[in-house]
Amino acid sequence: MSDAPGFAIRTEDLRKTYKSSRGDVPAVRGIDLSVGSGQFFGLLGPNGAGKSTTIGMLTTLVLPTGGRAWVSGIDVVADPVGVKRRIGVVTQNNTLDMQLTVAENLEFRSRFFGLGLREASRRAAQLLEVFGLADRRKAMSTDLSGGQAKRLLIARALVHRPDVLFLDEPTAGLDPQTRVNLWDILRVLHAEGQTILLTTHYMEEAEALCEEIAVMDHGEVLASGTVNDLKDGTGAETVITVRYEDAVPDDLAARAGLGQRPGVTKVESDGDFVRVFTREPEGVLGELVTAGSAAGLTVRDATQLKPSLETVFLTLTGREYRE
Amino acid sequence: MATTTRRAPVQPAEPAGVPSSAEIAALIADAPVPRPTLPKTFAAMMAREFRVLRRNAISLFTRAVMQPLLFVFVFAYVFPKIGGGFHLGASAAAAGASASAVRGGINFATILVPGLMASMLLMQGIMAVTFPLVMEFSWQRTIEDRALAPVPIRVLAIQKIVAGAVQSFIGACIVFPIVLFVHAAGQAPHVHVTNWALLVLILAAASLLTASLGLLLGTAMDPRKMQMLFAVILLPATMLGCVYYPWSALHNIRWLQIAVLVNPMVYMSEGLRAVLTPVLGHMPMWAVLLALVGGTVVFGYLGIRTFTNRVLN
User: Fold this and answer.
1) pLDDT category, A77, cuts 50, 70, 90?
2) List of chain A residues whose C-beta atoms are within 8 Å of the C-beta of residue B17
3) Domains of chain B: total
4) Is the pLDDT of residue A125 over 60?
5) N or C: which end of chain B has fewer CB within 10 A?
6) Is residue B19 domain-resident?
């Protein structure tokens, strides 16, 4: 058994392949994660990277087709009920019970988790107060704004003090102010010791909140570690991309002498652009422009990305991050 | 403006909802220790159904009342009054009566009592289970709310069947007095219940059958083709379900009498006919009970399976 103490979540070669009429579609291709107790962990990746499928498997609603996973030391396939007792899940969609009021959504969820009537309504009142929904307690849950609904979803996930709180794309589709408010709530929860696993396709969200991040794409974990680890490792370079009006001759980078420059780790050239990964970005942009005009090319646009999760992604996949 | 005195949040101008860390700490320190057990969770889910039922009581009641009320009004009040050429009910009744070797005096109202109750069971079973399921499985997948409750998914499916059956049962009970009391003078149905326990048993079995069928339809049917439900399932099941004529009366059309045996509705109508209006010819009780229980098991098994497959993908 690999349910070593201190791990809130562990996966070993976890896989999910969907069967479809056009053959097998691998959504998650064997991932290994370990999330420590009390950690704020982020799964970062573009849409379709396999994040939601991963969270689905960890929350027992998606059956893995290979590998294993444990939440609070409990196997998600062997004992899904045991896992469900110990987790809180904030789904990506608004899965509030549309037939119930705001308060009832919390009361019934509490009762599903075995609380008595009185205890359930006391817990609901407390959560509504803390999450600023007390004046909406009698509203139908369908009448809430997007931000209020999200807060209620979080409150609902906390009725029974879960070991792990899962949040699937919690701020997708929210306005910036609401998003920042939500971040504050999550930070406070984490400060109070709540283990949190969050998926997001917003780099700045992962960077702002998570202690550790796993970068996912096409069903695989490309890299994981703290934000600083990632930047120091794979994405330590500044990435400079220059796009020209016309196709770039193959030897343009060589003509600009980029290969010999100190600090340059990689030069890519394809179609109409040249991309340089370098630890010493000073002057590189200028040389690319000069070399371009020497070859009769006009610069269309140029970007210079400082080391960030975006450069990490670019380094790992060779593709620009698509949200 | 009496409602302006509601308890003020901490800072009304502030966009509410950012709790202080002290509040969150209290929230976590105060958190009750959950001790969910299967019966507790199941009971809470049923309580949720009753809360929703109570909230929608008026619309549910209207839905349950209108169709049978209009039916008995037209067939047991209007038709006998205008009399003359309208022998639709009379001939069917006569056929049924002759088959059971009972002397005349059977009116259409007598045929309609069990028939309309059975048709209500089917309608309520499907409305109570199928329609909500289609909503819950649609793009927001609100089903995940209850799928995350600490019970196996099949228990959730069984809970849906039980809740649907209760609603179906209530629907049939609402129909009963209507079909019993709405009729023209002298056209009262001949209802004679000798075995109340058997009546309750038949109603319960039929309710469970329709709710199981509702679960299967709600999880197996393509939601985009839901409007086909009426044309392909509800209408044929009712029209060919011995609602408006007793099964024994079909002996003149032998092939049809045999063909309708695949329709579960037939056994619901006939079972109720046997316990409510025994003056009319009806199917033997063993056949009715076998079909109702067997049908519940088969539809229930298939419905729970498709439900589980839809929830866990």
Assistant:
1) very high
2) 131-133, 147-148, 151, 181, 185
3) 1
4) yes
5) N
6) no
B147 alpha-carbon distance from chain centroid? 23
Q: Count Cβ–Cβ pairs < 8 Å, chain A vs chain B.
A: 150
Q: How far apart are CA A299 and CA B311, in angstroms?
A: 53
Q: With contacts defined as CB-CB under 8 Å, which chain A residues touch B145?
A: 95-97, 109
Name the more confident of B89 and A152: A152
Question: Is residue A219's pLDDT more than 60?
Answer: yes
At position A231, the amino acid (one-letter code) is: K
Segment A271-284, tens digit of pLDDT: 888 888 888 888 88
The answer to whether domain A238-306 has CATH 1.10.150.20 is no
Name the amino acid, one letter, at B34. Answer: P
Residue B11 lies in a domain: no
Counting residues of chain B whose pLDDT is more than 90, the rounded percentage is 49
Q: Which token pair is B36?
A: 């969910």
Given the candidates 3.30.70.2860, 3.40.50.300, 3.40.50.2300, 3.40.50.261, the CATH classification of the domain at A7-96+144-227 is: 3.40.50.300
* Residues of chain A found within 8 Å of residue B50, distances taken between Cβ atoms: none
pLDDT, position B100: 39
Instruction: Compute how many other C-beta atoms are within 10 angstroms of the C-beta atom of residue A3.
Output: 13
Rounded CA gap, B185 and A217, in Å? 77
- Looking only at the bridges linking them, the beta strands covering A195-200 and A40-44 are parallel
CB contact under 8 A, A63 and B32: no
Residue (of A203, A255, A262) closest to A274 by Cα position: A255
Which residue has tokens 């205890």?
A: A119
First to last CA, chain B: 51
CB contact under 8 A, A81 and B23: no
**Rounded (5°) CA angle B118-B122-B127:** 145
Mean pLDDT, chain A, rounded, equals: 88
DSSP class of residue A145 equals -
- Token pair 């320190």 in the structure block, residue: B29
pLDDT tens-digit series, residues B34-72: 788 999 999 999 999 999 999 999 988 888 898 889 988
Residues forming CATH 3.40.50.300 domain(s) in chain A = 7-96+144-227
Element (H, E) at A259: none
